[in-house]
Amino acid sequence: MEEKVGELWHRLITRMARTSHPEAAVTLEQVGTTVGILFRALGGDGGLQVEAAHATEHGARRSLLHRIAGDSRKVELAWRDEQYLRLPAVIDLFPSPQLNRDLYIWLAALAVGDHQDEEAWFGKNQRLTIKALNDYPGLRPRYQRLVEAHLAQRIQPDSQLKAEAAQEAAIRQALREPGSVEQLPQSRRPPQPVPLWLHPFPPVVAAAGASDDSDEAGSSSRGEIKQMEEQNRQAERAEKPEAKDRGLITIRMENIFTWGDFLNLDRGSEENDDLESAADAAKDIDVLSVSRDAKASASKLRFDLDLPAASEDDLVLSEGVLLPEWDFKKQRLLPDLCRIVPMLAANAEPVLLPDHLRRTARRLRAQFQQLAPARVWHRNQQEGSEIDIDAYLRFATDRMIGHAASADGLYRDLRIGSRDLACLLLADLSLSTDTWVDNHRRVIDVIRDALFLFAESLSATGDRFGIYGFSSRKRDPVRFHQLKTFDENYNAAIRGRIDAIKPGYYTRMGAAIRHSTNLLKAQPSERRLLLILTDGKPNDLDKYEGRFGIEDTRQAIREARELGLQPFCVTIDTKANDYLPHLFGSGSYVVIHKPSQLPKELPLLYARLTA
Question: Which residue ranges are recorded for the region named Disordered (predicted)?
Fold first, then answer.
């Protein structure tokens, strides 16, 4: 009975305290595309992606009803950082869906002028409001409607304490007449949230998977670092066990001398395990299971791990090539920052074309043979396969009428024409290609089939082409897999290399594009196409994750275009429309929405690009 009464009371008080309007809610998912286009069209940073903002505590005084109900502690406010424009996931502030939608549009326009300068929240939002209204006068009626609707919902100043009432009056004045109030009066509590403005203290959101670019000197560690003696240790990758699962595991008595204990070698600051004890334990473990943990490290053990993948790695062809990388914050290239290491598949046996691709390959070859240049008569040649009758008649006529005539150019020769085109296909071989497309194939399998059919098709045209793949582990090394060079003929050995591709590491795309640009610009062809095949946006373990990688890739593409190359991206990433327009431009990429269609679509796309 008590539980029933409590449940009824909770429902009643929550309903009474509710100030939102869920029946008129508009979600970011519904308007995200429109808002993103509007933000960029108004001059916003094209490299920013639109993401949902999480709720944060505002600390302002709540009404008695809200305190009883225990809600309204947090609020979703908009803000932007170096990588994202963050907007509320849901806006249900007003009883009208149109007003809620208008608020999304207003916040996007307001964020256009935000350059993340160190500026007081109160003055900054007034300045941004003035700029938005002056730059886009059409927003003024919409803004006025939002202000009036919002002011009707705010707590009235006469019901607040003196200091808080002064703050509220200043905010109301600033909303109605932006720029009319210079400073926000002081108060012990923060003012009521203003959803028409950007966040007063945007939370810092770390990039997923980001880490420091250097492991030297324990830059991320606050405590001791112990270097163990040089000895490679066998290792495997594993999920981090739950606390209740940790402990000594002994299954059979004959294994009693083999350790199977979970040792938290990378310990958080709250743990004070003895570093010497951990080092001694690590020496006795036969196989170390490596997992990820987001906690900060109080102390570290350093030792070499022998991961299984290294034993089956590809053949390294040279020490590598040093390349620059673009720092968008400093707006300059950092010289010799990345190292490209060319690699070749080890022990790749020559293979025939897979059976499931042969029918499609025959059809594509027949279509692409029509693109091959036709045989053309070259006239007025000094030597050739036969006499040029027209040239000979002119020569004979000139001799008969007494004109001086040259005997040069009396032959013609039948030669095969040339499209004078070279293409380099650069394939992303990162870890993400290990995901499954359907119940039978992974992304890497689809890419492999696409490379097979691409090579089969281009070999029928006579066009010069090269095929390479890449993945990376930070900036050194960037692995550059040689599948087919421009000087090699397509044959069973090349098919063997394509058949041997496998998922690698991460996607440092800028460095791979720069190296591909250097290879392609060395080709003597008049037209040079750089075709990039990927399944996601640029990323790596270090600061390359997020905006840094996006801007470096964009700069690499710009450099390729300045050299006369034609970059074009083919992707199966369903979210690619959020970032590829900023990278390649509106007409230089295509999204394949059904990854299984990539093998058939890629050669046909090449035909359209080079027609």
Answer: 177-245
Between the CA atoms of 108, 115, 82 and 190, what dihedral angle is there, to the nearest 10 degrees?
Answer: -80
Q: Give 543-564 pLDDT, tens digit per residue.
A: 887 889 999 999 999 999 999 9
- 463 and 599 together in one domain: yes
Residue 402 sits in the same domain as residue 363: no
Residue pLDDT, tens place only, 58-116: 676 666 555 665 556 788 899 888 778 899 999 988 999 999 999 999 999 999 988 76
* Buried/exposed code over 49-68 (b: 16+ C-beta within 10 A; e: otherwise): bbbebeebebebbbeeebee
Q: HEC string of 471-532? A: EECCCCCEEEEEEECCCCCCCHHHHHHHHCCCCCCEECHHHHHHHHHHHHHCCCCCEEEEEE
Distance linking the first and last C-alpha atoms of the chain: 79
The CATH code of the domain that includes 544 is 3.40.50.410
Task: Pick the last residue of a domain from 142, 176, 210.
Answer: 176
Please state whether the predicted TM-score (pTM) of the whole model is above 0.85.
no
Closest listed residue to residue 75, CA positions, set 85, 96, 90 = 90
231/351 same-domain check: no
Distance between CA atoms of residues 69 and 81, nearest Å: 34
**Which residues partner with 469 through β-bridges?**
427, 481
Do 148 and 284 sit in the same domain of this protein? no
Backbone angles phi, psi at 335, to 5 degrees: -70, 145
Q: Is residue 472 part of a domain?
A: yes
Instruction: Walk along the chain (611 residues) in steps of 10 and give the mean pLDDT of each run.
Output: 66 62 89 88 82 79 60 80 86 90 92 80 91 92 92 80 85 91 85 89 57 39 49 51 45 44 45 57 59 51 48 79 92 93 90 93 86 66 80 82 77 68 94 87 94 92 91 92 94 94 93 96 91 92 86 95 94 87 89 90 89 72
